[in-house]
Write a structure and sequence with these properties.
This protein folds into two domains: 330 residues, Aldolase class I (TIM Barrel, Alpha-Beta Barrel); 45 residues. Helix 1 packs parallel to helix 5, helix 3 packs parallel to helix 12 and helix 9 packs across helix 10. 38% of the residues lie in helices and 13% in strands. It starts with 26 loop residues before the first helix and ends with a helix. It is an alpha/beta fold. It has an eight-stranded parallel barrel, surrounded by six helices. It binds phosphoenolpyruvate and manganese (II) ion. The site of phosphoenolpyruvate (PEP) has 10 residues, from loops. The site of phosphoenolpyruvate has 10 residues, from loops.
């Protein structure tokens, strides 16, 4: 029988871990790990397998992956309104993509677990005071005081509780009728009068309603529109959270990380001989790896060999984040090498993380134009290589924030200050997200 003892290779270096007071072997961390290891799973391993089967379809160009949510979720923002707005935004984007491209859309929230962040610097200095950097609510608090910034392992249990509450509402919305395609108008409430994308969406929603009425009249059971699959995902960063939530599945006798359906390893923690890659190689969930512009074809092939040696369909997703200026140069050699190797991977575009800069007004931001240009480069590269542009990974919120520049609303550097609410990276707001969906839908239709 498979057991969890000795599942993970001991002694490997884990990058980007918090400096817990008392150390990783201290009593406080041990207590949190022990609590987590006894709590029930947040997801069922069978759901992870279902997602894997859907990713396998997307790898063949028969479905499109839409993953979106906050850069960093926070405990205080896990409210009904905020969760509903994010779900609504993703459902609206999915409807646009599905309608215009006639492809099933795999809906994945970057939520119900996205509470930990890798950081470029361990510390942050303000006015001569140096404190530990904010590493996400899983570790410490954003407030700039010593108490708030000191890593606290009790927070790991709070991550579990907040993820559980979030996922519960997500499941209620997506199974209870809120996500019913017949509600396609309801999701747009409050936006229908937006002259640009709200109105355009409304037009599409009318057409969808007519199509659904037609299908119903032809005998299709309307109940079949009622529930949708919605999956959870986050970066598997803090190993003292992910390991105790790894369990042996009673059906298959194999280990799954039951903290989310889909886990990815970030650009900064994907060292081949590091603890995160070892972790990912040992769990059965579908796995993503972020690939930045320094990734070589040899790196990509080595990751495939480590994470998917049997070439299992749906197992591996590469999330490329090259930057608008580099994608047309850096992605094609990877597509070529991976295709020639015969490996099955899903290619997803993260057009956010290669396009971040600081505005003259001092905010970490991104230009909508750059985001779209990276997506365009992604589609162009796949067209030239004969491979499938499999999906997008977007930092977004359903709220009306001002964090990214441009888009139809033409948010300016001066506007950033008015509603900049992100705890970490800048997100597309509701309107920008919808605009992106319309633009991606066109590219997908013409692919
Ligand atoms: C992120 O997804 O928020 C992130 C830190 O990305 P990356 O690992 O690609 O830098
Ligand atoms: Mn981010």
């Amino acid at each position: 029988m498979t057991t969890l003892d000795n599942l993970f290779t001991p002694g490997l270096v884990a990058a980007q871990q918090p400096q817990w007071p008392g150390g990783v072997d201290g009593d406080a961390v041990k207590a949190a790990v022990s609590t987590l290891s006894k709590l029930p799973p947040l997801v069922f391993a069978g759901e992870c397998d279902n997602l894997k089967a859907r990713i396998a379809l997307a790898q063949e160009g028969k479905a499109f992956w839409l993953q979106g949510g906050d850069c960093a979720e926070t405990f205080v923002a896990a409210t009904a309104d905020s969760i509903r707005n994010r779900i609504k935004t993703i459902l609206q984007m999915a409807a646009v993509l599905q309608y215009f491209a006639s492809l099933p859309v795999i809906k994945v929230g970057r939520m119900a677990g996205q509470f930990a962040k890798p950081r470029s610097n361990n510390d942050e200095t303000r006015d001569g005071v140096t404190l530990p950097a904010y590493r996400g609510d899983a570790v410490n608090d954003l407030e700039f005081t010593l108490e708030a910034r000191t890593p606290n392992p009790d927070r790991l249990v709070q991550v579990y509780n907040t993820s559980s509450a979030t996922l519960n509402l997500v499941r209620a919305f997506t199974q209870g009728g809120f996500a019913d395609l017949r509600q396609v108008h309801t999701w747009n409430k409050g936006f229908a009068n937006d002259p640009r994308f709200g109105a355009r969406y409304e037009e599409m929603a009318n057409e969808i309603s007519r199509a659904l009425a037609f299908m119903e009249s032809a005998g299709v059971d309307p109940e079949s529109f009622k529930s949708v699959d919605f999956y959870s995902s986050h970066e598997a960063l803090i190993l003292e959270y992910e390991r105790p939530l790894t369990r042996i599945d009673s059906r298959t006798n194999l280990p799954y990380d039951v903290s989310a359906h889909f886990l990815w390893i970030g650009e900064r923690t994907r060292q081949m001989d590091g603890a995160h890659m070892d972790f990912a190689s040992k769990i059965q969930n579908p796995i993503g790896i972020k690939l930045g512009p320094k990734t070589t074809p040899e790196d990509a092939l080595a990751m495939i060999a480590k994470l998917n040696p049997t070439n299992e369909p749906g197992r591996l997703t590469f999330i490329t984040r090259m930057g608008a200026g580099l994608i047309r140069e850096k992605l094609p050699p990877l597509l070529k090498a991976v295709t020639e190797s015969g490996a099955k991977v899903l290619w997803v575009c993260d057009p956010m993380h290669g396009n971040t800069f600081e505005s003259s007004t001092g905010y970490k931001t991104r230009r909508f134009e750059d985001v779209m240009d990276e997506v365009r480069g992604f589609f162009e590269s796949h067209k030239a290589a004969g491979t499938h542009p499999g999906g997008v990974h977007i930092e977004l919120t359903g709220d009306d924030v001002t964090e990214c520049l441009g888009g139809g609303e033409q948010i300016s550097e001066e506007d950033l200050a008015s509603r900049y609410e992100s705890a970490c990276d800048p997100r597309l707001n509701h309107t920008q997200s919808l605009e992106l969906a319309f633009l991606v839908a066109e590219m997908l239709r013409d692919r």
